[in-house]
Prior knowledge:
There is one protein chain. By secondary structure, the protein is α+β, with helices and mostly antiparallel strands. 29% of the residues lie in helices and 33% in strands. The protein has three domains: 3-53, no CATH class; 62-117 and 253-271; 122-244, no CATH class.
Amino acid sequence: MTYTELASTNGEAQTIVDTALRTSAPHELEPGKFYAFHTPQGVKQVDLTGDQYKDQPTRKAGTTTVRDAESFLAYWTKHHDDDSEVYADAERLTVTAVLDAHTTDGARWSGHRLHLALRETTAWTQWLHHDGKLLGQEQFAEFIEDHLPELLEPSSAEMLEIAQSFQAAVKVDFQSATRLSSGQRQFQFVETQTTKAGQKGQLTVPETFVIGLIPFEGSQGYKLTARLRHRIGQNGLTLGYKLERPDEIRKTAFDDVVKAIGEQIDTAVMNGSPA
């Protein structure tokens, strides 16, 4: 057979194939299988083996984020197995569980994870925001009034009275401040109002006060000591406070969350974060 005759025969055969493909009845493809078809443009592949074609996924996957230890334990109890791993990262304030972690005998997907991402409470962030800063009398008094629920010692009622005293003493000239043996600080002032010009007075406030704060949503509360700070300058009296070791309290609060989780699971909590 000559080349020309061979080419003609091949062309006729292709025409028959193309005609058969165009005229054949369509067939429904079955999920879960892989198909390959010859078309005029070449081989076409259809992959129906993915999870989207099945009644349920082949494996668990995805990361679930929770905000407290109780929620972490609830999800862990439902989905963990003997090879699940848990990591705590104090810097990021996170606890992460790899529920399908590698086993001793082989690899697994490590694609199903539980992530506890702690959020600081509004009260905690507000007290930390003003820590070490000096405010005007009225600003300081308003801050105390807004945070009465967190004030423990002296009581919120006593601190409210002190705040109101500072609000009332806006038209006075503060001249000095003396530390008393009782642990309080006494401010000496002179009235500057027309009707009471020259009249002297005193205002006594605690040198330290104790507040109760919940660092993270869903965590327990902790006591912090705040030391009163002040400055008497050309712009009058400014007031503030300095919290004692708030970073240590924050670390302790995170450690307590990790401890609460560790006590309820049979898996060691490792220091770090998973790959």
